[in-house]
Write a structure and sequence with these properties.
Length: 271
């Protein structure tokens, strides 16, 4: 009979507690989306109740939620793609040519709170008439996404064997050609991870859209805020809208995880 280490049991208990802390709010949110406002605020009503779809019907009735979901998707995808196009080659250059000062500047950009830049950004973008447009939201989200992707990808490129790129350059490729043909395919798992994290950061960003968007470009976090008023809060509608907002991110995480697992099994010897 194999004896289990007490440390293994403690680790299992700790993992279970962490999972409960993470999952419990999500389960409560989804359950509350199918409750009435009275049931949501009643502590005696747990997970056993008569579900209703009225909250989803109400939040989808005027089309504002669908428009906000579309706005979040547009801003998130465009800002992530543009940030990856800029940050991934930059990360390769920093990792391959030991540009430590550039890496330090990236770290500073990650440390600076973005909210401190909202006032000057609003003034500058208002002068050129961009406030309320998709352009200003994409640019602001890229301010967060570019340093995030760059900082993650530097470590991935530093971990790749440089001999493969040197062999490609010996065969006649330029340094950038070796990056495109050798380093970039090998760094696909890291690129997917960084892009997924950048997209989630953009999807959940609230402050930029609150200040710089208008009614037509309003994203989901700002729309959720409208369910909260001074006099009362539509808890059922808020939870239903929050559930609709969470579903795309969960799907992106699930499909992204499959891609990451597939990418990790691929390598330079595959052929």
């Amino acid at each position: 009979m194999v004896r289990r280490s007490p440390w293994g049991a403690l680790r299992a208990i700790a993992i279970t507690l962490v999972c409960l802390v993470i999952v419990a709010p999500v389960v409560w949110m989804i359950a509350a989306a199918f409750k009435t406002n009275v049931q949501v605020t009643d502590p005696t009503v747990g997970l056993v109740f008569s579900p209703t779809l009225d909250n989803f019907r109400n939040v989808l009735a005027d089309g504002e939620i669908l428009r906000s979901l579309g706005n979040s998707a547009i801003v998130g995808v465009v800002s992530t793609v543009l940030a990856a196009v800029i940050a991934v080659p930059a990360a390769w250059a920093v990792g391959r040519f030991a540009m430590q000062r550039i890496g330090s500047l990236v770290l500073v950009a990650r440390i600076v709170p973005a909210i401190s830049l909202l006032v000057p950004w609003y003034y500058l973008f208002a002068q050129v008439g961009l406030v309320g447009s998709y352009t200003v939201l994409v640019l602001c989200h890229m301010f967060v996404a570019v340093p995030l992707i760059l900082w993650i990808m530097i470590g991935f490129f530093e971990g790749l064997p440089v001999e493969l790129e040197e062999a490609a350059r010996t065969d006649g490729l330029s340094p950038f050609g070796a990056f495109l043909r050798i380093a970039l395919p090998l760094a696909a798992p890291g690129t997917a991870t960084a892009a997924l994290l950048a997209f989630i950061a953009s999807w959940n960003n609230f402050m930029f859209a609150l200040i710089l968007s208008d009614e037509d470009t309003q994203t989901m976090p700002v729309t959720l805020f409208t369910f909260i008023s001074y006099a009362s809060t539509d808890w059922g509608g808020l939870m239903a809208a929050a559930t609709l907002m969470t579903v795309p991110v969960l799907l992106a995480a699930v499909f992204g995880q499959k891609y990451l697992v597939a990418g990790l099994t691929a390598g330079a010897t595959k052929g």
